[in-house]
Amino acid sequence: MSEPLVSVRFMVYNNEPYIREAIESILMQQTNFKVEIVVGDDFSTDNTLDIIKSYCDTENIHINILDRPIGGDYWKVRQKLGRLYNFKNIVDNCQGKYIALCDGDDYWTDPLKLQKQVDFLEGNLEYNICFHSVKLFDEDSRTFVKDSITRKVDLTTTVVNLAKGNYMHTPSVVLRNNFRIPQWFNKVTIGDWALYMIAIKEGKIKKIEEEMAVYRLHNASIWSNKSIEIRKKHTQETVRLIYRNLKKNLSSSAIQILQSRLGISKFNSKIFLKKVYRKLFK
Fold first, then answer.
1. What angle do CA 117, 122, 124 make, to 5 degrees?
2. 23: which of 13, 149, 216, 268 is 20 to 30 A away, CA to CA?
């Protein structure tokens, strides 16, 4: 298979009840370019990996299951660095010009999803991220529910909007693969938002209003099962890591938003002091 234009970062762990719908939604994609599915199984104890192995490549889509034997190199580093190393390791193995995100408990609903997003990014070089609307499915009630997780945003946003918090559901996102995930990423507790903050750089974010994926809410979800207090704590930890490690690369407006979220007074910030210094001594 020739070099893929798109790599699908397919992160899975004990997703047996949902994995067929997820993998088949990727394999149904109709594209005029090559796609690779980079499967990162985090040592599932159910039949998730065996089910994935039962599927074959299509004409345009190649399934690349990362080799991760227990006791091997990945296993050793994973024990040391934790859950987010799986996320980072899959992205590091993505060869495509673009990276699409999908987890083993979500699925895509539009066979032209990848084609639409890649076409937009190919024709609009000032954008680094393209995402779209999704439907939320509650496994407990077996119904689609209102999105009370993310906030509404304009069709074009920037890092200033993103600094306020995430508004993109994971299975909707396609990124330009022009970044490297740093080591500090392994310490964050909100991996998707941290990834977007790393990848956005000076680019813009495009929202497509079409609903082209389903995001599941269920009891096995790592985030939704945490208490509000724990979520707030983890959010602050991630904001602090992003502020500490990315502030040299962010606009002053984005930095001030992060400082506000951390409770840092502008009168104590280096940016504010520099502005005062320039006014006094210019």
1. 95
2. 149
Residue identified by tokens 């006094």 is 280
Give bridge partners of residue 145 from the DSSP assignment.
136
Range of the domain at 80: 6-224
Question: Looking at the 3D structure of the chain, how many domains does it have?
Answer: 1
- pLDDT the model gives residue 221: 59
Q: Which residues contact 10 (CB under 8 A, 6 or more apart)?
A: 22, 23, 26, 37, 38, 39, 40, 90, 102, 103, 104
Residue type (1 letter), 241:
L
Query: At residue 183, what are phi and psi to the nearest 5 degrees?
Result: -65, -30
How many residues are there in the chain? 282
Q: Which amino acid appears at position 191 of this protein?
A: G
**Is residue 248 in some structural domain?**
no
pLDDT digits (tens, 9 = 90+) for 205-237: 999 999 999 999 987 655 555 678 887 898 999
> Would you state the torsion angle of the CA atoms of residues 248, 252, 255, 257, taken in this order, to the nearest 10 degrees?
-170
Inside any domain, residue 168: yes
CA pair distance 265, 279, nearest whole angstrom: 20
CATH number at residue 106: 3.90.550.10
